[in-house]
Amino acid sequence: MPELPEVETVARELRPHLVGRTIQSVWLDWPRALEPMLPEDFQNRIAGQKVELVGRRAKYVLVKLNADWLLIHLKMSGRLYIVANEAATDSDRWVHFNFQLDNAHQLRFSDSRKFGRVILTNDLKAVVGHLGPEPLDESFTVDILKERLSHRKTSLKPLLLNQEFIAGIGNIYADEALHRAHLHPLRRSDSLTENDISSLHEAIRWVLNKGIERSGASIGWYRQPNGEKGTMQDEFLAYGRAGHPCQTCGQGTIERIVVGQRSTHFCPQCQR
Ligand SMILES: [Zn+2]
Q1: E strand or H helix at 99, and its extent?
Q2: CB 94 within 8 A of CB 111
Q3: I need a labelling partner for 82 at 20 to 30 A (CA). Which of 13, 127, 159, 258 fits?
Q4: What backbone torsions phi and psi does residue 261 show, to the nearest 5 degrees?
Q5: Are 208 and 170 in contact (CB under 8 A)?
Q6: Where do runs of H (alpha helix) occur along 129-170?
Q7: What stretch(es) of the chain map to CATH 1.10.8.50?
Q8: 242: CA distance to ligand 1 center in Å?
Q9: Is residue 252 within 8 Å of residue 228, measured between CB atoms?
């Protein structure tokens, strides 16, 4: 599933194509992605709205329109891309939303697994207000992380996946951050030393920034809007490397365990 770096990459790539454009109309054939909003309400309300900003909050692509916010969650297999009307074909049979722009281009939302979500709202807080801090914001300091950890008594891996604890991190970047911080995924959150917390803070920011720099990780469905793969998978030290020697310590072998129904990769030698 796309995580913060993948969604950030998508938002950055779409931004120059969308800002200033007006959405003329929307075709769709998967109303369930909109629930509880009805398709005709969605279509009527979005038509004529102009795109002011394109950004990201947690794992949502966030489009600020002149009267509403459009939020798109890619979930498992969602893809967003722009195509010129004259080049548009129906060869992508997984397109479920087609936003017609005023410059003879279309924004397409393609989603083979159909888990994606499309939300139109004027109350952004109602949708994302409960989510935790953005780990790449300047306001997310070591002290903030420390303060948030002190209120929890759970193991680190599920905590990092909890979007109300911290926004945007999923299975891949959680495993990579814990590995680089030399922390065991089952380590209790209230057992960390000051040094552990600093290392975790630094590791989280490092993996997410590196993920953005490398345009995301393409190990599953994820592609950039231009169709190219990201290359963050080449940086992985833990995720998907079960059975391989640990490149960090040179002594351990990466293991895979299941934590909270999620596969979890770590080195038992250097992650205690
Ligand atoms: Zn190791």
Answers
A1: strand 95-101
A2: yes
A3: 127
A4: 70, 10
A5: no
A6: 142-150, 156-161
A7: 142-266
A8: 12
A9: no
Q: Rounded to the nearest whole angstrom, what is the distance from the C-alpha of residue 196 to the centroid of ligand 1?
A: 16
Which residues make Cβ contacts (< 8 Å) with residue 162, sequence separation at least 6?
A: 132
Rounded to 5°, angle at Cα 135 from 239 and 265: 15
Domain covering 142-266: architecture? Orthogonal Bundle (1.10)
d(CA 259, CA 242): 15
Q: How far is the CA of 212 from the centre of ligand 1 (A)?
A: 25
Residue tagged 């054939």 (tokens): 29
State the distance from the centre of ligand 1 to the C-alpha of 251, rounded, in angstroms. 6
Q: Distance between CA atoms of 107 and 91, rounded to whole angstroms?
A: 15
CATH class of 4-128: alpha beta
- Each residue's pLDDT, cut to its tens digit, for the chain (272 residues) gives 899 999 999 999 999 999 999 999 999 999 999 999 999 999 999 999 999 999 999 999 999 999 999 999 999 889 999 999 999 888 889 999 999 999 999 999 999 899 999 999 999 999 999 999 999 999 999 999 999 999 899 999 999 999 999 999 999 999 999 999 999 999 999 999 999 999 999 999 999 999 999 999 998 778 999 999 999 999 999 999 999 999 999 999 999 999 989 999 999 999 98
Sequence ranges of the chain with CATH classification 3.20.190.10? 4-128
Residue 189 CB: number of other CB atoms within 10 A? 21
Burial of 106 (C-beta count, 10 Å sphere; 0-12/13-18/19+):
buried
Residue type, 191: S
pTM to 2 decimal places? 0.96
Q: How far is Cα 168 from Cα 149, in angstroms, rounded to an integer? A: 17
Compute the distance from residue 15 Cα to the ligand 1 centre, in Å: 40
